[in-house]
Design goal:
The longest helix is centred in the last third of the chain and has 31 residues, at about 875-905. The protein is α/β, with parallel strands linked by helices and about 900 residues long. It is about 35% helix and about 15% strand. A 6-stranded antiparallel sheet has the order 4-8-9-6-5-7. The protein contains 33 helices and 28 strands. Helix 3 crosses helix 5, helix 4 (about 65-75) crosses helix 5 and helix 16 (about 375-385) packs antiparallel against helix 17.
């Protein structure tokens, strides 16, 4: 609501304030007398001299000749003409040019008119102060007026739904078809979006395109082209432009005050920046621009992929669940209805971009929540069930470009979280993903994503591990020129050099990376940035942004005497040697120290390298071990013994080499504060002899010379300091992610980081705000509240692949694990409980059809809820506004009484 200490209304003293008042009254918005504090007044001061503003007082709301204006103002035509031309160029007047070359002018309304004109003037496009005042004027002066707008499309703009998304059996009114406006016009132009342009100038630009998105018709099109604001389109190009912006998730909006079958503008709007839809978000969904339709979810078809949630401009859709006996409305977060409640200042959501809900208040499918990259698990399982494996692969790659790799090594937290665990066993999600992703091994079946756009900017990715590869993939999809630098001979990072081939065959990595090369991503291996070339030199070569993703590629040591002996090594170096086919020095009995996946990999590698025996000692109990349970089982099946609850105390040696380790009993690993802080009982020890000792107790970050001369800061564990959500370092063109930020984690965590890093670099290079709208919170349904109808559940038991012959496994470096058959995939996919689905807030829904256009599962449709017609002119619109204001007053009073009585009762 308006700030009472800085009211825009008052006595107009200057020419600028007087002209703002004149525009308000003559242009038809009737805001009343506009004072010196008004953002409009301040804006006009930046745009035109006061003398011109005073001259504008003599222009009417219908075409007025230069001669008429000059006569009314008492000045010569020669003096008036250039002043009027300048005001027309700046957008404070609308300029008409007749066929015989004469100029006429009229005062434009604020909307549609001045609001659109001012930010599309070529000279104003770089004026951040005008952009600030422009947005403030809408939010603080026009915005409050809209709370009185009719609940059914009573705003100045009305959403026009995507026609292709309306069932042919439903009636379509003439003004509801966007093509009506195209067909009734003769000339067409397109220009940059005024609203998104203003947002970009204030560094709050959103992800939506802003160039060449909004359309003008007939005389307005002529004005836009003549003043350098836009360029002409043919009718065919105009229709194609509609489809282009639909693909981008923009909403068609026409103005309500120009008749029911004609408009001078079609604005293609987003909910982040654009005038009307932005106000809907600020006022918590007040439905003042809605169409006569609403989105409706087909519960049987929806798979909670989240595409509709991400694309919805007003956050009317969230991810909910099928497993609670609740309606869509009951699952939605609470909002305050502006038609039944008095809106206070605190009810206005100025930070709405960062208050969006991804998930409904009762949560959604646990699998998508548990996945660090929030892959649409339920969606690709449904595609697999239908035998649409390439479509499933495409869906996975929207959030994970390395599915074949992940299928082999992912710890699958999605399975641990699976609701099916409460019934029997979790869904074999990883096996399904692996089956789908193995299609990539066949070059003829690879999914190569379409490149969305083309940018000249070059981006350097430093490190070809999972985080770097992921960032490269998504930046290439956006259309940037991406080069990946890595000091190793091959790309892949720890995937290539840190994970043994019996878990991740190198052909799988090569196959995935081949897709990257086909996308145009360049790899420069054998180049160590910081040694062979510096970031500053790369800047001089034209690179505009950098992503640091070198991983935690060094092994940690214990700090005990004897670590320097020749038969004691760290696990990372050991695996690197083994993966490169080099001599590892493995001999005799081997002790591996560590309880994570790396330790398990080291132990299993040592067996294959000829160890007589392998004993693994770790601090953690069996239940606390960080290594995945299935990997522990595989290690034991290969003859490795695991000894829990022991910490190294002394490395025994004979002066030349280590002869074993004396362990002390570990009584706890985590202290009362939840921190890693082991406690020991040193009275209980165990001495173990060995000829080879491998310490796999963790990894550390080694920057080499990469950060030399840079302002990039590091903190605990040598991890780089980044800004939350954006992953931007202290140098604005340098971003980082993966293990160099978090410390050692799983590949899927690095993939999630790489995806976010790419998005930040995309925003950075295209002038968008780095974090707005990115703090989505995922939360799972509470399993103790789940309500399952066993009569509707497929009780087929979980499908398993054939067990590996471990006697053969330890004799080879090949991965002998087999996947599920296609028949098993069909059976396993049928076990999915379909926990998640989208839910629609019918109050907030615009009825635009953007969500339906994005849905791949035929899970949403538009249904007619009203037959409200557009206003014919400003007078008609204001009449509606007044009537609704009266109804709103009664509703507010009635609601207040009911709520008070409810509290008293």
């Amino acid at each position: 609501m308006p700030d009472k200490d800085n009211m825009p209304w008052g006595i107009a003293k200057t020419g600028w304030a007087k002209y703002a008042t004149h525009m308000s009254m003559v242009g038809g918005l009737f805001l009343g007398p506009i004072g010196e504090n008004s953002n409009f007044t301040k804006m006009f001061k930046l745009l035109v001299p006061e003398e011109e503003a005073l001259l504008g007082l003599h222009v009417k709301n219908k075409p007025t000749s230069v001669e008429e204006v000059a006569k009314s103002a008492g000045i010569s035509v020669e003096k008036a003409a250039p002043m009027l031309r300048h005001m027309g160029q700046k957008g404070l007047l609308f300029e008409h040019l007749t066929k015989d070359g004469k100029y006429f002018y009229h005062v434009p309304p604020f909307i549609p008119g001045f609001y659109e004109f001012v930010m599309t003037d070529p000279d104003t496009l770089q004026n951040a102060e005008v952009a600030k005042l422009f947005r403030n004027a809408l939010d603080r002066e026009l915005g409050p007026l809209l709370r009185f707008a009719d609940v059914q499309g009573g705003g100045l703009m009305k959403v026009t739904p995507i026609m292709n998304e309306i069932n042919a059996e439903q009636k379509i009114l003439q003004y509801e078809d966007i093509l009506t406006f195209i067909n009734n016009a003769e000339r067409y132009s397109v220009a940059d979006c005024a609203c998104r342009t203003a947002g970009r100038l204030q560094n709050v630009g959103c992800d939506h395109p802003y160039k060449d998105t909004c359309m003008q018709f007939d005389e307005t099109a002529d004005y836009y082209v003549r003043t350098g604001r836009g360029h002409y389109l043919t009718k065919e190009e105009a229709i194609a432009k509609l489809k282009e912006v639909e693909e981008a998730g923009l909403v068609h909006c026409a103005f309500q005050v120009e008749g029911q079958d004609y408009t001078t503008f079609i604005c293609n709007c987003c909910g982040c920046s654009c005038a009307g839809l932005r106000q809907i978000n600020r006022l918590d969904g007040n439905p003042m621009s809605h169409s006569n339709f609403r989105a409706q979810i087909n519960e049987d078809n929806c798979v909670a992929c989240g595409e509709c949630v991400k694309i919805c401009p007003v956050n009317a859709i969230t991810l909910g669940t099928n497993l609670l006996a609740k309606t869509d409305a009951e699952q939605q977060p609470y909002w305050k209805d502006a038609q039944t409640h008095k809106m206070k200042k605190e009810d206005v959501h100025e930070n709405f971009m960062n208050e969006r809900h991804m998930v409904a208040k009762d949560g959604t499918a646990p699998c998508i929540v548990a996945c660090p990259s929030h892959v649409a698990v339920q969606g690709y399982i449904q595609k697999a069930a239908e035998g649409k494996f390439m479509e499933a692969l495409e869906l996975i790659k929207k959030d994970n470009p390395l599915p074949a790799i992940c299928g082999k090594i992912c710890p699958h937290p999605c399975e641990s979280a699976c609701t099916r665990n409460t019934l029997d066993e979790s869904l074999a999600i990883d096996a399904i993903k692996m089956f789908i992703a193995e299609k990539e091994n066949d070059a003829s079946q690879r999914f190569i994503p379409a490149i969305k756009d083309h940018y000249d900017e070059k981006v350097a990715i430093i490190g070809a591990g999972p985080a770097g590869l992921t960032a490269a993939y998504y930046l290439a999809v956006e259309g940037f020129q991406v080069t990946v630098f890595d000091k190793n001979a091959k790309p892949g990072g720890m995937l290539e050099y840190g994970i043994p081939a019996f878990r991740l065959e190198k052909e799988v990595i090569a196959s995935e990376i081949e897709v990257f090369k086909e996308m145009g991503i360049e790899f420069k291996c054998g180049v160590e940035v910081g040694k062979d070339v510096t970031i500053q030199q790369l800047r001089e070569e034209g690179y505009k942004a950098f992503y640091l993703a070198i991983g935690a590629q060094k092994g940690s040591m214990l700090g005990l005497d004897g670590e320097e002996l020749p038969n004691v090594m760290n696990g990372v170096d050991y695996l690197s040697l083994a993966n490169a086919g080099k001599e590892t020095g493995t001999k005799g009995d081997v002790i591996v120290v560590g309880g994570g996946n790396v330790a398990i990999d080291v132990a299993r590698t040592a067996i294959r390298k000829g160890a007589t025996s392998v004993k693994l000692y770790c601090l953690e109990s069996k239940e606390e071990m960080p290594a995945a349970a299935d990997e522990q089982i595989e290690a034991k099946d290969e003859g490795i013994t695991i000894h829990n609850g022991w910490g190294p105390m002394v490395i025994e040696n004979n002066g030349k080499e280590a002869t074993g380790i004396t362990f002390k009993q570990c009584t706890s690993v985590i202290d009362e504060d939840g921190k890693f802080n082991p406690s020991y009982d040193e009275s209980v020890t165990e001495k173990v002899e060995a000829q080879t000792i491998i310490l796999a107790i963790g990894q550390r970050i080694d920057w080499g010379g990469l950060l030399d001369g840079l302002k990039v800061e590091t903190g605990r564990g040598n991890a780089v300091n980044v800004t939350p959500l954006s992953f931007q370092t202290a140098e604005e063109d340098i971003f980082a992610g993966g293990d160099v930020v978090t410390g050692p984690r799983f590949a899927i965590d690095a993939i999630a980081a790489g995806k976010e890093g790419a998005h930040s670099i995309f925003r950075y290079l295209t002038g968008r705000h780095l974090t707005n709208g990115r703090n989505y919170e995922y939360k799972s349904i509470k399993l103790d509240r789940v309500q399952m109808n066993l009569n509707r559940i497929d009780l087929t038991p979980r499908q398993f692949a054939p067990e590996v012959d471990h006697a053969k496994a330890i004799e080879t470096w090949n991965d002998l694990r087999e996947g599920l058959t296609e028949e098993q995939i069909a059976a396993e996919s049928g076990r999915c409980l379909h926990c998640g689905r989208s839910v629609v807030d019918m109050y907030k829904c615009l009825g635009c059809g953007v969500c339906i256009h994005r849905c791949e599962f035929d899970a949403i449709k538009l249904v007619r809820v009203d037959d409200t017609e557009s206003a014919t002119d400003m007078k008609h619109w204001y009449g509606r506004l007044v009537k609704n204001a009266a109804r709103r007053g009664v509703n507010i009073a009635t609601t207040a009484v009911k709520e008070r009585m409810g509290k008293e009762g």
